[in-house]
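anyone seen this seq b4? input:
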Amino acid sequence: MILKLGIIILVCITTLKIYVDNNFIEILNYKIRLSKIPKEFNGFKILQLSDLHSKSFGKDNIKLVRKVEAVNPDIIVITGDMVNDDFDYSSFACIVSKLVKKYKIYYILGNHEQNVIKRNPSEFNNFIKSIEDKGINIIDNEKVVINFRKKFINLYGMYIDLKYYRDFRNKNSRSVNLSVESMEKLIGKCDKSNYNLLLSHNPVYFSTYAKWGADLILTGHVHGGMIKLPFLGGVFSPEYRFFPKYYEGIYRYNNSFMNVNRGLGRGSFCIRLFNRPEVSVITLYNKHDNS
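predicted toks r here
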């Protein structure tokens, strides 16, 4: 009897934990300090959303919208996989329709958007046009300039072809690698004299992004490893590998930093555990400022 009661309690606690870890959004704040950041950008807040996978947090995604509004960022960047392969765009559309009225939004496509394009290009292109008409800036292997207090930083958005998404079940994909030369063909040479922010869905190529010249890279894709274990970190990777090298938070390579956003949805995985949905807020500071 005691054993049965213990099992029931354990099941209830686990069920509650899974519910919380899949439905309660966590806001994570990071500060990036670098001498290349113009002093005028001190306190500039970048809010990052990623990997929604058509999930809804409340009616019309109102809970997520309120989280963003509470932060009141200077810009919003969206790093891909906001829709699933099921052509349900309504959840994402609700978010951007509300937020674009208050904030500048920059969006790059992830691998799931590419899957949708392959299956039904005309429908997805109509969706893309509809959100562009609302004022969403879709950055497809190009650079835009972010002006703030009469200074600027560069924002690059990269569309990584599906061939660069490794699948370790497929031997052929293991040898595919994104090089600096490949990046330059896609997106051009980096303007290294200024501060450069790069949006790229896949974090696996961090060293390449840094060598190309990106000072701050914002990525997603890995979903925080879906299940996190103490001292071991994220367990699963979309590459079908265990314990991916980059799964959440800030990483550094020389003077370049990368944030891997844990994402909001689940994708094709079943659950998140010890790994709540995330909204990242990255605040920029000049290295010599004491704020």
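The radius of gyration is 19 Å. The chain has eight helices and 14 strands. kinda curious what u guys think
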